[in-house]
Amino acid sequence: MGLEAWFMDTSDEDQRKDHRMEPNQPASLEELGKLGVFYRKLDADIYESDPKLEEIRKDQGYSYMDIITIHKDTLPNYEEKLKIFFTEHLHADDEIRYVLDGQGYFDIRDQEDRWIRIATSKGDLISLPAGIYHRFTLDETNYIKAMRLFVGEPVWKADNRPADDMDARIKYIASLH
Asked: How far apart are CA 105 and CA 32, in angstroms?
C-alpha cells in the first residue's frame, strides 16, 4: 500500500489519533508533490544494502545519516521530545526520514493553512521541503524507528511558527507559485 494522507479535523483530542474529517478528505500524492513533499516506498528490511536507497542518497546528495528510535524506553527525555516534535515549526533544510520500523504522522500545512496528516510506516521515505510548516507525532503504537538523512552535516535547529520572515520560508512560498 502506498502513502496515505488526509486533511485533519480540528479536534484537540489525543494527537496520536488519526484525526480524519467526517467524511474523510484524502490528500493525494499529487497534492503533496505540489507542496514539495517527496515520497518513495522502499524495502526497509534491506536498508543497509538497498541499491534504490543508495541511488536516492546519491541523486539527492544525502551524505549524512543516523537512526533514531522514538519510544519511551529508548529516547532520553521522551515526553519532552514528543512535545518539541509536535510544536509547529520549519527548518532551513529539507527534513528527510526513512521509516525502518513502526509508524508515525507528519502533519504539514497546505497553501490555505489547513493541516494535512501523512501516515508513515515501515518502508516510507519522505522528504519535507525547507520552509514548510510541519510537526511530527507518533500514532497510538508509540513507536517508530527512522533513518534521518541530511545533505552535509546535520543542522538540529527548528524555528517555531511564526517564522514567515525566514529565508527558507520566503523561498518555499515563492516555489509554490
From this structure: 14
Are 6 and 24 in contact, with CB atoms under 8 Å apart? yes
φ/ψ of 152, rounded to 5, equals 75, -160
CA distances from 68 to 2, 78, 79, 157 (A): 23, 12, 15, 16
Question: Is the Cβ–Cβ distance between 17 and 140 less than 8 Å?
Answer: yes
Helix (H) or strand (E) holding 117: strand 115-121
Are 83 and 16 a contacting pair, CB within 8 Å? no
> Cα-atom radius of gyration of the chain, to the nearest Å?
16
pLDDT digits (tens, 9 = 90+) for 51-106: 999 999 999 999 999 999 999 999 999 999 999 999 999 999 999 999 999 999 99
